[in-house]
C-alpha cells in the first residue's frame, strides 16, 4: 500500500524575509545616474566624464560627483588616466573575455555549492522566481536600466544562495561593470529572450545536477554574451548621438 505524498510544511516567516532599507545619499544618486546613462547607452564606453559638466546636468556640486567617480573607479566602471581625464572604461573584447571568465568561475562555484547544500529547494527556487518577476516587470516597462538591475539581482541572488560570503564579495566587485553590459545587450537582443535564458538557469538549478548547472551557466554567461555585438552597439549609439 503506497503512502500519500507528504505535504510540504509551511515555512514560518522570519527576519530573513525583511529587506532593510538604506538611505540614499547624493553620492548614491550620482552613481545611479551614471550607471543608468551607461546601461542605456547614453554614456558610452570610452566617453570622457567631466566633473563640472556632470554636476551641471545633475544639479549637484562637484563634491558628490568626485566621490561617486572615486567609488566607480575602484569598481572598474571608470578609469582615470593622465592627460585623458576620467572616462567610462573602454570596451575591448579582451576585457569582456576577462569579465566572462571571472563570472563563470564565481557563479559556477556558487551554484554548485548551493546544490550540494540543498539550497535548490522550493525556497531557493521561489527566490530566483521572484527575480524573474522583476525582470518581467522591467521588460513590460521597456526600462533598460531597470532590466539590467533586475538581471544583476538575479545573479546576486544565485550567488547569495551559496552562503559563501567570499564568493559574493568577489562577485560584487564585478557587479556594476556587468550591469552596464546587461543594459547594452538589450539594444541588440530582445528582453524576452534574456528572460528565457534565466528561466533555463532555474530549470538547471532545480534539477540538482551540478554538471547541468555548469553547462547552463556557460551557455548563458559565455556563449550568449559573446553572441552580442557590443562593438556594433557602441558604434551605432555613438553615431546616433553625435
Walkthrough of the structure:
The chain is mainly alpha-helical and 242 residues long. It has two domains: 26-90, Arc Repressor Mutant, subunit A, CATH 1.10.10.10; 93-229, GntR ligand-binding domain-like (Four Helix Bundle (Hemerythrin (Met), subunit A)). It has helices spanning 26-39, 51-58, 62-74, 93-116, 122-141, 144-160, 165-185, 191-207, 210-226, 230-241, and strands at residues 78-81, 85-88. Strands 1-2 form a two-stranded antiparallel sheet. A hairpin with a 3-residue loop joins strand 1 (78-81) and strand 2 (85-88). The N and C termini lie far apart (75 Å).
Brief write-up:
Helix content is 67%, strand content 3%. With 242 residues, it is mainly α.
Distance linking N and C termini: 75 Å
Q: Indicate the proportion of strand residues.
A: under 5%
Q: Determine and state the CATH class of the largest domain.
A: Mainly Alpha
Q: Can you give the mean pLDDT?
A: 92
Under CATH, the homologous superfamily of the largest domain reads: GntR ligand-binding domain-like
Low-confidence runs of at least 5 consecutive residues: 1-13
In DSSP terms, counting alpha (H) and pi (I) runs of 4 or more, how many helices? Answer: 10
Topology pattern, helix = H, strand = E: HHHEEHHHHHHH
Query: Given the helix and strand composition, which structural class is it?
Result: mainly alpha
| Number of structurally distinct domains | 2
CATH A-level architecture of the largest domain: Up-down Bundle
Shape by Cα distribution: globular
The CATH topology name of the largest domain reads Four Helix Bundle (Hemerythrin (Met), subunit A)
What is the rounded Rg? 20 Å
Side-by-side strand order of the widest sheet: 1-2
Task: Kindly state the percentage of residues in helix.
Answer: 55-70%
Amino acid at each position: 500500500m503506497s503512502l500519500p505524498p507528504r505535504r510540504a510544511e509551511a515555512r514560518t516567516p522570519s527576519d530573513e524575509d525583511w529587506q532593510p532599507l538604506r538611505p540614499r545619499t547624493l553620492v548614491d544618486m550620482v552613481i545611479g545616474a551614471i550607471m543608468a546613462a551607461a546601461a542605456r547607452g547614453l554614456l558610452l564606453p570610452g566617453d570622457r566624464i567631466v566633473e563640472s559638466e556632470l554636476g551641471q546636468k545633475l544639479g549637484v556640486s562637484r563634491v558628490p560627483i568626485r566621490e561617486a567617480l572615486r567609488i566607480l573607479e575602484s569598481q572598474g566602471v571608470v578609469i582615470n588616466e593622465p592627460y585623458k581625464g576620467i572616462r567610462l572604461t573602454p570596451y575591448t573584447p579582451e576585457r569582456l573575455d576577462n569579465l566572462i571568465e571571472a563570472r563563470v568561475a564565481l557563479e559556477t562555484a556558487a551554484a554548485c555549492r548551493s546544490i550540494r547544500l540543498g539550497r535548490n529547494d522550493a525556497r531557493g527556487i521561489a527566490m530566483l522566481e521572484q527575480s524573474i518577476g522583476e525582470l518581467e516587470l522591467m521588460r513590460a516597462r521597456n526600462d533598460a536600466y531597470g532590466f539590467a538591475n533586475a538581471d544583476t539581482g538575479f545573479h546576486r541572488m544565485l550567488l547569495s544562495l551559496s552562503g559563501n560570503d567570499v564568493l559574493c564579495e568577489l562577485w560584487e566587485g564585478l557587479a556594476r561593470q556587468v550591469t552596464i553590459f546587461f543594459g547594452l545587450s538589450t539594444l541588440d537582443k530582445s528582453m524576452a529572450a534574456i528572460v528565457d535564458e534565466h528561466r533555463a538557469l532555474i530549470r538547471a538549478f532545480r534539477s540538482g545536477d551540478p554538471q547541468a548547472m555548469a553547462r547552463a551557466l556557460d551557455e548563458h554567461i559565455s556563449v550568449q554574451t559573446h553572441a552580442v555585438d557590443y562593438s556594433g552597439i557602441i558604434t551605432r549609439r555613438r553615431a546616433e548621438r553625435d
